Here is the input.
Amino acid sequence: MKDLLKILIGFLPWILFGIMAGPPLTRLEAALAVSLAATLALGLKQLRQGFFLTWGSLLFFSLSLILVFVLRNLWVVEHMDLLARATLAVIAWGSIIAGRPFTLQYARESVPEAYWHTPEFIYTGYFISIVWGIIFLIALGASLFRPYLDQMASWLYPLLATGSMFLGIIFTQWYVHRVRSARQT
Here is the structure.
């Protein structure tokens, strides 16, 4: 349960953004401001420790707020969904390419340091981060093809774009529980 809470807190700025963002423009601006504030309020420790997700969130919400609220960049406004999903994919895959999978950063907060360098721990972190990277790519694909998805079946876009996030949280919780159970036997 503790792991689930950490995952939810890590994604809370994005969840808030997903719930709040939308027309009119003032609603998008409010969503960006609240998400930026949530990133700062919940992520100060992670920012100091160089967490990819928290830094990516801070950069995305800060830059987006400037582009939307200050500069009134309508292209960014029109493509915000796509930009948000692309950012999450870049965070996940960038952390993997950099050799610091973002899920390992969170796992180290609840796993004793003695396990941090074990092959099982590292493999699990990479595997879960790759699953998240795939989930973010699916959501990005849903954003890219949203007009077509809406024409085919209006329920398909929310399922792929938002439902995949919850699937990732459930998968992460299940997989961590599975690994811990296997280690105890």
User: Anything to note?
Assistant: The CA atoms of residues 101 and 126 lie 6 Å apart. Residues 2-184 form one domain. The chain has a mean pLDDT of 91. The radius of gyration is 17 Å.
